[in-house]
TrEMBL record:
<dbReference type="InterPro" id="IPR023366">
    <property type="entry name" value="ATP_synth_asu-like_sf"/>
</dbReference>
<dbReference type="InterPro" id="IPR026017">
    <property type="entry name" value="Lumazine-bd_dom"/>
</dbReference>
<dbReference type="Pfam" id="PF00677">
    <property type="entry name" value="Lum_binding"/>
</dbReference>
<protein>
    <recommendedName>
        <fullName>Riboflavin synthase</fullName>
        <ecNumber>2.5.1.9</ecNumber>
    </recommendedName>
</protein>
<feature type="domain" description="Lumazine-binding">
    <location>
        <begin position="1"/>
        <end position="97"/>
    </location>
</feature>
<dbReference type="InterPro" id="IPR001783">
    <property type="entry name" value="Lumazine-bd"/>
</dbReference>
<feature type="repeat" description="Lumazine-binding">
    <location>
        <begin position="98"/>
        <end position="194"/>
    </location>
</feature>
<dbReference type="InterPro" id="IPR017938">
    <property type="entry name" value="Riboflavin_synthase-like_b-brl"/>
</dbReference>
<feature type="repeat" description="Lumazine-binding">
    <location>
        <begin position="1"/>
        <end position="97"/>
    </location>
</feature>
<keyword id="KW-0677">Repeat</keyword>
<feature type="domain" description="Lumazine-binding">
    <location>
        <begin position="98"/>
        <end position="194"/>
    </location>
</feature>
Amino acid sequence: MFTGIVQAKCEVMAIHTKTGMYTFEIAIDESLREGLQIGASVATNGVCLTVTQEVNGHVFFDVMEETLSLTNLVHLQVGDWVNIERSLTFGCEIGGHILSGHVHTQAILSEVSKTDSHYNLELTLDPQWMNYILYKGFVGVNGCSLTVGAVTENSFMLHLITETLRLTNLEQYQQGDTLNIEIDSQTQAIVDTVERVLAQRFGHNV
């Protein structure tokens, strides 16, 4: 489990390709490697990955084809930066919202608006997932717990503060790029339950 509070953005140092699998080699700060064990879970751009090796400050993660096909990890290149969060431990402050590290879908960055006073992103999302995107609700974007701004039928806004831009890789994305999306599990459960109850009460056309 994760909180969506990204701890660092870290550089992809190498990508080793094998049949049906990529191995990402990522340089992770010493402070974040403290106590890190083989088999530990680390959110990488919001994707829960398992540590397979650590060598000279570089941490290795094996990523299967299925994960690559569902996430933007497939687009990573050497020199790119990824958002990193260690898994939640008992007693830690939860400043975001609970995330599983299981990406539901990807959104397309349809517009970037930046001025001296704001940095806004508009993300376009498949309508089936927009049911769970609510104004002032939570959404996981590349592993970041963010508050949803204005919502349309197929898109939503994000209003990013300077600290979020400093700690994460969101500023490196441009129009047309894809970002990993994990919807809030509580929102999904509530929406699905309400829809099921209404369908049972009033028929499946509701």
